[in-house]
């Protein structure tokens, strides 16, 4: 029997979100033994149980209050929301944090030789998709009448198989579309993975644990997006150098032994330094420029 006092989190068992979800938990200090076949994994060092399921099931598990938290692509979440609303339900959940992985877009694609001059070109067409509600919302806004053909996989072969005129599917690089003789003509939704919480009462213990996890996630994500930058700079060009550095309002300045004209500058930047910026810094007299990854941070 499961212990309801432990925080339950649903994540994708295997697929595009599972490795990064697992990595995020690990970086937050949650030790989980994820044996391949088990549906439920227990954290060893925190009162957390991880439920590993198909991604399509995660929004429903959160909306029905079966799990406390879930990591899910916004595309699947939004589709489930629209689908439940269409059935007269009023599903509830809370978005805790957009995550920094799982980026993709839901796009309309057509055969290379088909003409496309905006959504009106789709008037009365058949469109194959696994996301009928997101597609309908978009085309209703554009006042386009269409028929959707629901496919849960291999959507990209539908036009060639004569099942549809166009498709509406997830794209990240576009390579799959290209391999199937299709071209992306319109982006209807941009998605990332997100952390959601069920609606309703949460015990103080669970709420504290959620807050702690959120702070840690914030630290992990911020650290991944940040860089530690060190360089040596001529003291008389500091203003110009600082102006070139992203987010460098208050760098630390340290004296350099035996050199009165130069200082060492250390700073955390919210972005990485591009080669172009490094070349400009060098042209201003900076040297020994180092850009280092940050493992963790807490503000
Ligand atoms: P499951 O077996 O869990 O149902 P699935 O095959 O439905 O898995 P995946 O292909 O693993 O799903 O994708 C999961 C999520 O990853 C997508 O819903 C989307 O949010 C995100 N994603 C990121 N990039 C892509 C991409 N190029 N194609 C599809 N999904 C992507
Ligand atoms: Mg799925």
From TrEMBL:
Record pathway: Amino-acid biosynthesis; L-histidine biosynthesis; L-histidine from 5-phospho-alpha-D-ribose 1-diphosphate: step 1/9
Cofactor: Mg(2+)
EC numbers: 2.4.2.17
Residue span, ATP phosphoribosyltransferase catalytic domain: 54-219
A GO term, aspect molecular function: ATP binding
Taxonomic superkingdom: Bacteria
Gene Ontology annotations for the cellular component aspect, listed alphabetically: cytoplasm
Catalytic activity: 1-(5-phospho-beta-D-ribosyl)-ATP + diphosphate = 5-phospho-alpha-D-ribose 1-diphosphate + ATP
Cell membrane listed as a keyword: no
NCBIfam families noted in UniProt: hisG, HisG_C-term
Protein name: ATP phosphoribosyltransferase
Gene from which this protein is expressed: hisG
